[in-house]
Design brief:
CATH topology: Rossmann fold
CATH superfamily: Vaccinia Virus protein VP39
Largest sheet: 7 strands, mixed
Number of helices: 7
Distance between the termini: 51 Å
CATH architecture: 3-Layer(aba) Sandwich
Strand order of the largest sheet: 3-2-1-4-5-7-6
Strand content: 15-25%
Order of helices and strands: HHHEHEHEEHEHEE
């Protein structure tokens, strides 16, 4: 892919430094796929307004690296990213874990058309694109993980997505400032299993990950 929409060499260095900061490792080809995805996002964003962030360098930090902070917490084989938007964090996670199956769901048809193009251009055979409201989507099999990034309030996420995880499935909710008030409205039968403060290079904004599951027996 050679669209000359970004300074690929400069952004590659930024991505490499960020990955090192996160103490992650990329396999051969994964960096290229992530940058190919970024190029597609820059190109389509001009017409489709997929994200308010326009600067490619900001996209590396606030989209790619922000999504990659989830890497250590991905478990199981079947994973769904609800309200995925332009594929965040779903596409970066699918690139990082080519042996796992990712479903990317969004109700916005422009965004799912973009995701379909990403699947083709990046040859991501481990993703399925679903154009639907989450409460209207009923999968054939349950999921091990339900991901969300700035999708909705935690109460809504759990209520709308309660039919998606299996018996041992959990929700991974990416948030900014720790959502104390949202957690007070956590539906009965659920608990926060773990919270993590996520650190990003050159980013002072707070980032948190909440791992939510059903109450332990």
């Amino acid at each position: 892919m050679n669209m000359a929409l970004i300074d690929r060499e400069l952004l590659a260095k930024q991505l490499e430094a960020g990955v090192k900061y996160l103490q992650l490792e990329l396999l051969p080809g994964q960096q290229d796929q992530l940058l190919d995805y970024l190029e597609l996002l820059v190109k389509w964003n001009k017409a489709y307004n997929l994200t308010a962030i326009r600067n490619p360098s900001e996209m590396v930090s606030k989209h790619l690296l922000d999504s990659l902070t989830l890497t250590p917490y991905i478990t199981g084989q079947r994973i769904i990213d609800v309200g995925t938007g332009p594929g965040l964090p779903g596409i970066p996670m699918a690139i990082m874990y080519p042996d796992r199956a990712f479903t990317l769901l969004d109700s916005n048809s422009k965004k799912t058309r973009f995701l379909t193009q990403c699947k083709l251009d990046l040859d991501l055979q481990n993703i399925e694109i679903i154009h639907s409201r989450v409460d209207e989507f009923h999968p054939d099999k349950p999921f091990d993980l339900v991901l969300s990034r700035a999708f909705s309030a935690i109460e809504n996420m759990v209520n709308w997505c309660a039919h998606l995880p299996g018996d041992n499935g959990v929700f991974l909710a990416m948030k900014g400032i720790f959502p104390s008030q949202e957690l007070e409205a956590l539906p009965d039968g659920y608990e926060v299993k773990k919270t993590e403060k996520l650190m990003l290079p050159d980013c002072e904004a707070e980032r948190h990950l909440l791992i939510i599951g059903t109450l332990s027996d």
